[in-house]
Amino acid sequence: MFNQLDWNPAYSIETLEPNTVFFLSERESICFQEPLYYRLVRLIDGQRNFDEIIDILQLEFLQNQEINPSNPNSFAVIINYSLAIQKAIFQLYKRGFLLEKKELLPSNLAILCHHLQVSQAQAFERLQSLKVTVKSLGSIPQQDLINILNSLQVQVADEGDLTRNVESRNKTLHLRT
Questions:
Q1: What is the 3-state secondary structure (H, E, C) of the chain?
Q2: CA nearest 149: which of 165, 161, 134?
Q3: Per-residue pLDDT averaged across 74-99, rounded?
Q4: For 3-24, how does the pLDDT look when each residue is reduced to its tens digit (9 = 90+)?
Q5: 133-154 pLDDT tens trace
Q6: CB-based contact 44:98 (threshold 8 Å)
Q7: What pairs with residue 163 in β-bridges?
Q8: Could you give the domains of the chain?
Q9: Mean pLDDT calculated for residue range 37-41
């Protein structure tokens, strides 16, 4: 299902005991007041996968509940709790608070992708397929700009994709594509 789960870097997460969780970003703030969400916040750390989180929460649930094994409903109670955990995780994922951990882009670009409503995978793919050429004007050093572009996962090449030179009547025209 999911590999490692991690929080969207666009959100700051704050908790208040016993069961309040705030998701804060530049655009919105959301509050959940449920013990399950409070427990999820401390378990989702980018190291644990979906199944491990469910297992830990189920074990906590079993330790805190007095479940009688001879009761025919005890299995249903455990299954219902497991489904509630899965529903909460999927809701957090659907709303964009939770991401499958893929370190495709640095956190600053991941935040930008979130605000532009572009998936990190799509942005990474486009950055990998894009090549730009850097030419300096006057005494401005090229290497500083090349280093910045490389840190943003933009490929610098001798012949770029963004500018095409077209010779026309002894003038060079630059067309953006």
A1: CCCEEEECCCCEEEEECCCEEEEECCCCEEEEECHHHHHHHHHCCCCCEHHHHHHHHHHHHHHHCCCCCCCCCHHHHHHHHHHHHHHHHHHHHHCCCEEECCCCCCHHHHHHHHHHCCCHHHHHHHHHHCEECCCCCCCCCHHHHHHHHHHCCCEECCCCCCEEEEEECCEEEEEEC
A2: 134
A3: 88
A4: 778 888 889 999 998 889 999 9
A5: 888 777 778 888 888 777 777 7
A6: yes
A7: 176
A8: 5-100 (3.90.930.60), 107-176 (no CATH)
A9: 92
Strand partners, 171: 168
Q: How far apart are CA 145 and CA 132, in angstroms?
A: 11
pLDDT in tens, 155-177: 888 777 665 444 444 444 454 44
Question: Rounded to an integer, what distance in angstroms lies between the CA atom of residue 27 and that of residue 67?
Answer: 44
> Distance (Å, rounded) from C-alpha 144 to C-alpha 30?
40
Q: Is the peptide bond before 9 cis (omega within 30 degrees of 0)?
A: no
> What is the rounded CA–CA span in Å between residue 28 and residue 114?
12
Is residue 34's pLDDT more than 60? yes
- Amino acid 62 reads L
| Cβ–Cβ under 8 Å, residues 157 and 139 | no
Which tokens go with 35? 């013990």
- The residue type at 124: F
In angstroms, the CA 46 to CA 8 distance is 10
